[in-house]
Amino acid sequence: MKHIRLLVTLFIFTIAVSCGQQKKYITYKVKQGETMRSIAKKLDIKTRDLLRLNPDVGRRPEANTEIFIPRKNAVNLGETKKKKETNKNLIVKDTVVTTQDDVVINDEIELLKKEFLLHKVRKGDTFYSLTRYYNVLKSELIELNPELNEGLKLDAVVKIKKLVEGEDIDLIYKDSITDDASIKLALLLPFRAKVFDTVSSQEIFKTRRLPNIVTDFYLGADLAIDSLRRQGVQIDLTVIDTEERNTVINDLIDNRTLEDQDAIIGSIYSDETKKLANSVSAPLVFPVFSKSQTSFTSSRIVKTSPDKHLYKEKLLSYVSKKYTNENIIVVGDSTTASITQIKQIANILKQHDSIDEVHEIIPHYGYIAQERFLKMMKPDTTNIKNWVIIATNNNVIAADAINSLISFPDPPEPEEPEEGEEPAEPIEKTNYLVKLFGFEKSDYVDNNKYAQLEFVYVTDTYIDESSLAAKTFNKQYLEKNKALPSYYATRGFDVTYDVIMRLASGKKLSDTFKDGVSYRIKSKFDYQKRLFSISENKGLYLLEYQPDLSIKRIE
Question: Residue 458 and residue 439: Cα distance in Å, rounded?
Fold first, then answer.
């Protein structure tokens, strides 16, 4: 479940604190070269406790950054001397200073919190990270905060967007690494080295799909592990070739090989994953999508790819939320499953207070004639937009339907007037305003057509190739592997990085799921854990084609 949380840690400690708080905590200015770890050591407290006291401060704060420290420990830093009151407008207690201006600022912030989603800028924040996390444009941020024309400033409070009643705001997961974080991770992949030992690499990778998937996933995971090790995480990695299906897995179970792992990534086969779930105690991360994953029930399994039914839920929720009086048409195919689905879609949409009618259309003899569409559609003279939802996996039918929605027939030429008659007025062409929706994007349709229809679709991957994160990842992968990353390479990075980073917080993996949604290179991890059952990722994006062929993330 998503909750509206306006960054509850944003103002745990404001400058204007209560007298009781002033006695318990004081502020301390970080000196050049000091880290949170070195300060905690001087204070004789744990680094993690100091970080929790200062949730918006990184592990290596800049000099003169103000942090909160326990007053009782401050004697080790020589910070308990009281300052004298300098004027009637300045109230000084220990090192906590509150002016009348501060009180005004805090009052203004409290008022803003009722109207806007706010964010306090912390070290490492960029325009890209803010726009990605909160799904807003940089131009929108600057419009709300003109001062951002000068850039992001540490500790500044930024208005992200206006709050909308009933809107869910994702709680964003904040990466954190505890002191001496140490993770034991097992990676199970079917390299099938024994089988391919006598086969040339050209034959292995050019004629078989599985070796490419497994190798690319591993190379992405390897890059994630390198990155996390550079950040100070100690990772004890065990890579196991699971070889032929249901062979090595059985040996691992019998020999209790995976007994002491913090997490296990793999197997990529659903049947092997079910077997493992009954014999291991560590979280079992299923790293790719499988149609069979809906049958998982074990509480140890973590599904990293959203189930397909969630795509439909995501799109229909958006359509219902944005509906203002549009004419809705649902396109299916002639199969029993499709006919059942389009009726379900119609029923779901009609639960909206204002949606009374949803048109359903399926092929006759494998084809949907344009005339049938036109009978259901509203012309542009009515100013009513036609929303067409493609609810079929049949690419031919979908492509034909889209072609019918793009070019409309010219009116018939008026007949030649008889002698002495006035020529007939030409008939104006009827046009239609159309917007297209789909549960997924088909590669069978030209992108120009998608752009013309402002196509909105659901996907579990999204990347801004111009972003610093994407450029850095692509560069590092290219330097190390002499090739650009494939889908599965990026998948290997995202899944591995996310699992280890969450474990590096010092919490159980499942406990981190309620701490928010994480965004990696392409993937969004929004985990929901069912009671006594599996943990599943519901992280999906909604993307929209723009007239210039660019793609915009709208949710």
Answer: 5
What is 360-427 written as a DSSP string?
EE--BTTB--HHHHHHHPPPGGGTPPEEEEE----HHHHHHHHHHTT--PPPPPPPPPPTTPPPPPPP
Distance CA(233)–CA(163), nearest Å, equals 38
pLDDT of residue 164: 67
| Residues 77, 121: Cα–Cα separation, whole Å | 27
In the predicted structure, residue 6 carries a pLDDT above the cut 90: no
> Crossing angle, helix 468-481 and helix 487-503, to 10 degrees?
110
Backbone φ, ψ for residue 17 (5° rounding): -110, 165
Position 539 scores a pLDDT of 95
Helix H, strand E, coil C: the string for 37-105 is HHHHHHHCCCHHHHHHHCCCCCCCCCCCCEEEEEHHHHHHHCCCCCCCCCCCCEEEECCEEEEHHHHHH
Distance CA 505, CA 415 (A): 79
- Is residue 413 scored above 80 in pLDDT? no
* pLDDT of 167 above 70: no
Which strands make up the sheet holding 541-545, listed edge to edge?
359-361, 327-331, 386-390, 434-438, 456-459, 541-545, 551-553
Burial class (CB in 10 A: 0-12, 13-18, 19+), 69: buried
User: Which residue stretches of 305-357 are H helix?
Assistant: 309-322, 336-350
Give DSSP secondary structure letters for 468-522. HHHHHHHHHHHHHHSS---HHHHHHHHHHHHHHHHHTTTS-HHHHGGG-BEE-SS
pLDDT at 16 over 70: no
Cα 477 from Cα 492, distance rounded (Å): 12
Report the alpha-carbon distance of residue 394 to residue 283 in Å, rounded: 37
In the block, residue with structure tokens 């009722």 = 114
Cis bond before residue 267 (omega within 30° of 0): yes
Using CA atoms in the order 109, 113, 118, 121, what is the torsion angle rounded to 10 degrees?
30
Q: Which amino acid is at 83?
A: K
* Tens-place pLDDT, residues 184-218: 999 999 998 887 776 677 666 666 788 899 999 99
Q: Give tens-digit pLDDT for 77-129.
A: 755 444 333 333 322 333 333 344 444 456 677 788 888 888 888 877 788 77
Amino acid symbol at 64? N
Task: Decide if 90 contacts 99 (C-beta within 8 A).
Answer: yes
Going by the DSSP 8-state scheme, the letter that residue 180 receives in this structure is: T
Using CA atoms, how far apart are residues 414 and 401, in angstroms rounded to an integer? 29
Point out the least confidently predicted range of 59-63, 197-201, 517-521.
197-201
Q: How far apart are the first and last CA of the chain?
A: 16
As to burial, measured by CB atoms within 10 angstroms (0-12 exposed, 13-18 middle, 19+ buried), residue 390 is buried
Q: Residue 58 burial by CB count (10 A; 0-12/13-18/19+): exposed, middle or buried?
A: middle
